[in-house]
Structure formats: structure tokens, C-alpha cells
Amino acid sequence: MSQLLAKLLDAKALSDAGKHADAARALQALAAKHPAEPDVVSLLAVTLYQLRQYERALFYAKRATDLRPQDASYHTNLALVQDATGKRDAAEASLLRAIAINPAHPDARLSLANRALDEHRTRDAAAHCEAVLKVGLHPQVAMTYCGALMAMGEVEKAVEFTRVALEKYPRDASLWGGLCAGLNYLYGASVEECAHAHRRYGELLAEYRPAEKFTYRGTRDSARRLKVGFVSNDLRTHSVSFFMEPFFDLHDRSKFEVHAFSTTRHPDATSERLKQMVARWHDCGDLIDIEIARLVEKEGIDVLVDLSGHTLNSQLTAMSYKAAPVQATYCGYPNTTGLKEIDYRIVDGRTDPMREARTGAALEPDHPDFDERCTERLVRIDPCFLCYQPPRDAPTPSREPRASGPVFGSFNANKKIGAGVIALWSRVLKGVEGSRLIMKTFELKDPDAKARVCREFGACGIAPERVEILEPTKGIAEHLAKYALVDVALDSLPYNGTTTTCEALWMGVPVVALAGATHAARVGVSLLNAVGVPELIAESEDAYVTLAADLARDTARLTHYRSTLRERVAASPLCDRAEFCARFSDALRGMWTRWCAR
Fold first, then answer.
1. For residue 362, what pLDDT is reported?
2. Which of 80, 89, 159, 510 could cysteine-pair with 182, CB 3.0–4.6 Å?
């Protein structure tokens, strides 16, 4: 082994161990002696990137591609640094250069696939992944491929692909996490498989976690002012932020010091508004998981709350370090995290009923109890675990004149609309002569996603003219105005709408929901009970079809809902910001008090 290679391997070992500053010093010395050695220059670029010295990293990354222009990995590294310096177009050009050299380069294709997903070009994202997967299975590419399939509504295909990938990589935690997320959307998914997948993810995460220890230096005083932290990629214009804002805005500053650990790289006006409501705002978009955990420890957080679960860009890995003595999860994910390091999950008694309160045909007695499914202890903040903030610029509820028969509608995400729910909705359409269905979600602007929906309705005997897919709209007011075209909203299953249900009700449109056997399938039960319209909940698929059909034919009842629902929603617990803040505050205090008593 040459002396240069030995020193290069030593520097890489330092970098792999997280000692990036030491690695950079060693590589800088090597680069001074060997300025034309591309491997030295490239590794120095990557190390400087990890140190967030982006301009210096850009210099060396560009030099590496000049020295060895036919190396796809060098162009991929250059793209990584270009992205970090805001040169997005240049980064894409570098990635395209990389796949021109090596069409199956996994890192380049993965970056291009993730870009395509960000821009809702799901077919392009899938194609980039397929270019790698036809050569061989790659765990990270497999994960992104499943994400693309989910966005296209191919939930069954995504879940099955993940299961197959896990046969080859049974100890890959990220693949288990992908299975966890996918099973929430799968029509007819096994409660037992879903619970097992989440637990397996948590076990593997704990096994692979670095051995770094975190020390809490606070005091066990149940009555003192608490430092409460919230970790999320969605502290921006996102439904999670809208549901969290009441607590951020109204919490008692004498009892809580609220910290926000925002991991988004794209803060916006909502981020700025939330920032004014909390004691400390931490921009963590450039931090890795262990750095977030160290920051939590440094700030002395007493209770840390995850708002993402197994969603894109979540920070469950940061939560796994247990940098705060009490940890919880809330709102952003409709299931257990599977992490034993997360102590609590905040829900309500309708989304996650206690065993003695379970009713309805969908709640089979042999299913694991809602509490048994979770690695966390459930904290139920009844009557509803959410608080809805209606948009200030929402138009007044109205109904445009009908051109023909009743109109059903769904504005839910495409991945919530699998083959099973399409079959159910087809039964509804067949039960009401002359009826139509309007669908609206930004994912359906993708031609392949749109074709999939039309194809599956066609397979159920529904003529193309009975299903209309609306174009995306620019703002929330224009979006909500489209409810003037809808008579009855159909909730999705097994993953219910949340914000979409609230918006439909606010626009005077009744939402028909089916009481299911999981949290994701019971959010509609919680929302409709909170608003005081439990008559819109069906306990079986047959009852769902009958309820939706009967409602669509009852014009007097629809008119009554259109004129009264907004007022009922506004006066309900769903919109009572102060009461929700009090319930949520009590939940946090109860968690802390239990820890102090141990």
C-alpha cells in the first residue's frame, strides 16, 4: 500500500467516525502535497461539506471533476455541494452528467428521484429509481421508489415491493420505516403486521444507534416552569403547523418555555409567524440527528414532542437518543412510532378507544387493543385531539347550480385513494343515478396518477364522464371555493382525511366517514363527533354506501348542512383554541408529573 493511499484511508476513517475537522486537516495537508490527486481532492470536498464549509467544498468538488471528468461519483458530490450553496440548476446539470457517465449510479439517480418527488413529478421519480433497481436492489433507492409509488396511488404495489426488499435486507431500519408508513394506507392491512413493523423499526434503530450518552441536568420538580420542545420538518405552511399553532400562541408563558426545533430547509411566512410565538426557535435544517439531540440536551428540554412520526424528513432518529427525560409524539403521524424511547402518544378516546369503549363492526375483538399496539403510553385529550383554525379568507359556503345529479367529492391525497376505496366509492355512484364524483389533489396533475384513478374506476364499471379531476388551484381561498361544486364529501379509508374533512365541514359540505379499526381510520369519527354530527358516521361499508346515497338525494338536508355547518364547527370543541390549549397543557404537565414521581 502506498503512503498516499494509507494516509487517505486514515483520513476517511476519521471522517467516518465523525471527526470531520481532524479529517479535513489531514486532507488539507495531503492536497497541498498532491494537488492533482482527484481522490484526495474529492474526499476533502465531502469532508468540508460535512463541516458546512460550503464555498470551500465547492472549490474542491469542482476541482475533482476537472481532474477526473468521467467519474460519476465526483459529479454527484459536486451536485450535493451545489445544492447546499443554492445552485439548484447547476446541481441538476451535474447529476445529469453523472447518469450520462453511469446510467445506474445510485446516488445520482436517488438525488434526481427526490428532486422529482419534490416537484410532484412522480413518474420521473419512479423512472430514476427503476434505472437503478433493474441492476440490483438498493435499500435507499427502494425507499424512494416506494414513496413514488405511494404518491401515484399504487399503495398495494409499494407495500409489496417493500416486503420483497425486506426479504433481502431484513435488518434495514429505513425499509421497515417505509413499510410502517405504507401499511397505514393499505386497504385491508393487518393490524398485527402494522404493529409488528413499527416495533421492529424501533428495535433496529436502538440496535444501530451510536453509543453516545445524554445527560439530563434539570430538577424533578413537578410544579416548576417546563421547557417543552417540538421537533418537526413541518413548522411551515403545513397542516401540522396549523394544528399546533393554538398551543404555540396561547400557552401560559409562566408555566411553559416553548422551544421549536425546526428541521425544514424551506422556512416560510408561517415559520416566521410561529417563531414569534415561542421562547426559542432553533433552525435545524442543516443539522444531523445527533446534533439535534445534543442541542436538545444543551437547552435542558424537559419534555420533547415529535410532530412527524414516520413521515418524510422526520427526526425519529434524533428522538431515539432520548436527549430529554420525557418524550412524546403527536399529530403528524397516525400510528405508534415503535420507539421505546418515546414515552407517550397524544390521541383521544374516539381515535384510539379504550377496550371497554370499543364499539362498531370494524373493531374486531381479536385485534390487539389500541393501547397494546403502541410502544408509547396513550394520553387521550378528549373530546378531540385536534384544534382546527379556519382560514381567514375562506369564502362563504355556497352551492353552484347543479348541471345534473348529485355530486360527491374527495379532495384527499392520492395515496389515500387506493383500489379498495375506489371500489367502495363506485358502489356509492352506482347507488345514485346521475351522480358524479369530483376529485382534487395536486398529485393528480401527474398523468400516470390520473390514469391510474380513471382506470380503476373503469374497472369498477364507472364511466369516465362520471369522475372529474380538478386542476390544482393557487391559494387556499380558491381551493375552498371548489366545495361549491360538491354536495357530499366522501372520506377516504383506511386513512381518513384530517384537514380536508375540517375544510369540507367549514364550507358547509357534510362528510360521510366509516368507523375503522385504526387511528388513521377513526380520525373522521373524532372530528364528526366533535362537531356534533355523528349521524354522518357509518359502522360498515354497506352502511357507508347507504348513508352517502340517501344524503345525496336529500336536498333539504343538504341545504340545511350548507347553511348551518360552519356555525356548528365554529362553536364546537374542534375550534375552541383556549380549551384545546388547556387540554394539551394538562397532558404535558401530566407526563412530567409522572416522571417526577418515579
1. 47
2. 159
When the candidates are 3.40.50.2000, 3.40.50.1910, 3.40.50.720, 3.40.30.10, the CATH number that belongs to 407-575 is: 3.40.50.2000
- Position 366 scores a pLDDT of 53
Instruction: Give the Cβ contact number of residue 594 at 10 Å.
Output: 15
Specify the pLDDT at position 30: 85
pLDDT in tens, 85-144: 989 999 999 999 999 999 999 999 999 999 998 888 889 999 999 999 999 999 999 999
Q: Which fold has domain 122-207?
A: 1.25.40
Mean pLDDT (the chain) is 93
Q: Alpha helices of 251-354 — where are they, by DSSP H?
A: 269-275, 289-299, 316-319
Residue 15, C-alpha cell as written in the block: 471522517
The C-alpha angle with vertex 442 and arms to 189 and 551, in degrees rounded to 5, equals: 65
Q: How many residues does the chain have?
A: 598
Largest CA distance in the chain: 86
Cα separation, 382 vs 465, in Å, equals 43
Contact 456, 439 (CB under 8 A): no
The answer, yes or no, to whether the previous bond of 494 is cis (omega within 30 of 0) is: yes
**Alpha carbon distance, N-terminus to C-terminus of the chain:** 57
How far, CA to CA in Å, does 504 sit from each of 390, 494, 512? 11, 19, 11
Per the CB < 8 A criterion, the answer to whether 370 and 345 are in contact is no
Phi, psi of 238, deg, nearest 5: -160, 150
Distances (CA, A) of 408 to 173, 348, 424, 556, 561: 40, 29, 13, 16, 15
| Average pLDDT, integer, range 313-340 | 96
487: helix, coil or strand? coil
d(CA 43, CA 26): 11
The percent of residues above 90 in pLDDT, for the chain, comes to 83
Architecture of domain 1-102: Alpha Horseshoe (1.25)
Q: Distance (Å, rounded) from C-alpha 283 to C-alpha 260?
A: 8
Q: What is the pLDDT of residues 345-376, one digit of tens each?
A: 999 999 999 976 655 444 555 566 899 999 99
DSSP state letters, 517-528: SSSTTTHHHHHH
d(C-alpha 598, C-alpha 238), whole Å = 37
Residue in the block written with cell 418515546: 342
DSSP 485: G
What pLDDT is stored for residue 357 in this prediction? Answer: 60
> Looking at residues 240-246, what average pLDDT do you find?
95
Task: Give the range among 12-21, 285-294, 462-471, 529-538 with minimum mean pLDDT.
Answer: 12-21
Extract the C-alpha cell encoding 529: 363527533
For residue range 152-187, list pLDDT tens digits in order.
999 999 999 999 999 999 999 999 999 999 999 999
Same topology between domain 226-387+578-597 and domain 407-575 = yes
Q: Are the C-beta atoms of residues 332 and 307 closer than 8 Å to each other?
A: yes
Distance of alpha carbon 244 from alpha carbon 556, whole angstroms: 37
Identify whether the C-beta of residue 117 lies closer than 8 Å to the C-beta of residue 151. yes
pLDDT the model gives residue 12: 84
Domain 226-387+578-597 - what CATH class?
alpha beta
Kindly write down the DSSP assignment for every residue of 63-90, as one continuous string.
HHHHH-TT-HHHHHHHHHHHHHTT-HHH
Cα Rg of the chain (Å, integer): 26
